Amino acid sequence: MDKTKKLHFDxxxxxxxxxxxxxxxxxxxxxxxxxxxxxxLQQAEDTFSFKRRAYVYTRGGNPTINLFEQRLATLExxxxxxxxxxxMAAISSVVMSFAAAGDSLVAHRNLYGSTFGFLNHxxxxxxxxxxxxxxxxxxxxxxxxxxxxxxxxxETPTNPALEIIDIEALAKIAxxxxxxxxxxxxxxTPVFQRPxxxxxxxxxxxxxxxxxxxxxxxGGFATSKDxxxxxxxxxxYMCELGGVMSPFNAWLxxxxxKTLGLRMERHxxxxxxxxxxxxxxxxxxxxxxxxxxxHPGHDIAxxxxxxxxGIISFEx
Length: 316
Known about the structure:
By secondary structure, the protein is of the alpha/beta class. It has helices at about 10-15, 40-50, 65-75, 85-100, 115-120, 140-145, 165-175, 190, 225-240, 245-255, 260-280, 300-305; strands at about 80-85, 105-110, 130-135, 150-155, 180-185, 200-205, 220-225, 285-290, 315.
């Protein structure tokens, strides 16, 4: 990890966590296999007793998937990661890893639709309650936390209203009350924002979107600075709930990550041009764009996000 910190983001997105068995191949192999073989019984026994690191069954580990996990974790400054079959598989597994019957969650008022549905409807069937609040108001965050609160969940920028939340300030409030913080970083990506550096405990992605960049993959991802938690999430939740990513999808995501930095810079540039155009149109009442100084979250975005203007929303 020390060596990787000296490399530029775009270099890491191509070369981080490279495996020794690529046999000089420019691109990593796709290990399209459900199971792995052993040369003898002793090798199998050593593997199952964790005396040697090896692969057994793709649901629990696969070289292509693990390369994707480690590479994206590196970009997010996490210690390791867990790949999932979809963004919602990642979100639901992470939330369930922190909350049990009788617990409560605090979530931001503006979330991706399926995330809201999961927190507001599905997980309530298992005795977990969610309180939705405006997390741009830190006083509201403090008031919402109770002795039953185990987790604070948010997106920033939010989907689709582009509200900006102060991760660092919120994390301090949460941790002083023994509460974990999970941030969905799908919109900003690690190109512009790395929530773990501001105190988030877990960072999530719907890799389907910018991490892929080609519209041909559905996938999810989670990472943390806590290695023990990553192991718990992988083997206690991803494996048991079965939301495993396909090795082929992991390979496609590795391909997409090579251009992540370039694509996000162009996305931001295009969004800024469109926002400026719309702002000068008489038909448009309001343009919400964090890159504008009059956006309510502009100061936080400037401090928390490197060069991000983001997408835009507007009202006719």
